[in-house]
């Protein structure tokens, strides 16, 4: 099993919208990718909540059967298509993959 965690810090304004709007759009785009790979076991997307500690604005917490399943997700055209938007609205991105 392979864990794939990605965290993004968003710009206050980008792509003609404010941070809150872009966060909702990014979450919807990522949520739509939850079933792109048959090897996906967990796929959770969350926006930081007011009043709770968070150093990033958006997180993807996912688990895949193996590296091939993660690659199938990463290389899927629907996932590839959201990358330009995510690149335009993010200030920072952190990623970590590890075996369980």
UniProtKB/TrEMBL annotation:
InterPro entries: Dabb (IPR013097), Dimeric_a/b-barrel (IPR011008). Residues 2-98 form the Stress-response A/B barrel domain. SUPFAM superfamilies: Dimeric alpha+beta barrel (SSF54909). This is Dabb family protein. It comes from Acidovorax cavernicola. The lineage of its organism: Bacteria, Pseudomonadati, Pseudomonadota, Betaproteobacteria, Burkholderiales.
């Amino acid at each position: 099993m392979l864990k794939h965690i990605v965290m993004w810090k968003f710009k206050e304004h980008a792509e003609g919208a404010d941070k809150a709007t872009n966060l909702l759009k990014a979450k919807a785009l990522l949520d739509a990718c939850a079933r792109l790979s048959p090897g996906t076991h967990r796929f959770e997307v969350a926006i930081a909540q007011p009043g709770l500690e968070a150093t990033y604005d958006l997180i993807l917490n996912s688990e895949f059967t193996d590296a091939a399943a993660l690659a199938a997700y990463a290389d899927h055209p629907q996932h590839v298509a959201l990358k330009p938007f995510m690149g335009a609205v993010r200030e920072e991105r952190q990623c970590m993959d590890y075996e369980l």
